[in-house]
Amino acid sequence: MVRRSKLDAQQTREKLLAVAKALFQKQGFKETTVSEIAAKAGTTKGALFHHFESKDALFREIWEGLQIEMDEEARTAAVDALDNDDPYSAFMAGCQTYLNWAQRADYQQIVLI
Fold first, then answer.
1. Distance in angstroms (rounded) separating the CA atoms of residues 15 and 11
2. CA atoms of 72 and 80, how far apart (whole Å)
3. Rounded to a whole number, what is the distance in angstroms from the first to the last CA of the chain?
4. N or C end of the chain, less CB within 10 A?
5. pLDDT (tens digit per residue) in 49-69
6. 37 contacts 58 by C-beta, under 8 angstroms
7. Dihedrals phi, psi of 106, to nearest 5 degrees
8. What mean pLDDT is predicted for residues 79-107?
9. What global pTM score does this model have?
10. Helices marked H in the chain
11. pLDDT tens digits, residue range 6-31?
């Protein structure tokens, strides 16, 4: 049996996340199978389950990643727009960031739908 390095394992994990994200965006969670994710990532279902407890866990990590990325961008926009004379500007900048994200296909399909 071939031993994989930590770098190989990390690359496999990242590939699984990228492939799963693309499939979840295109097909939705229900229509995407573990077999399909593994095949398109060039790995096995066993490797997928080595990195993720379940398809739900894989989806949740992608979902959380999108939420964290959006939140960080909204916070940065709010801080950048902060005006002591008008704190509402920070709120509006954060809201605009959210609305921009809500228009993205990946965010819509994975987070909102």
1. 6
2. 12
3. 41
4. N
5. 999 999 999 999 999 999 999
6. yes
7. -65, -45
8. 92
9. 0.86
10. 6-27, 34-41, 45-51, 55-81, 88-102, 105-107
11. 888 899 999 999 999 999 999 999 99
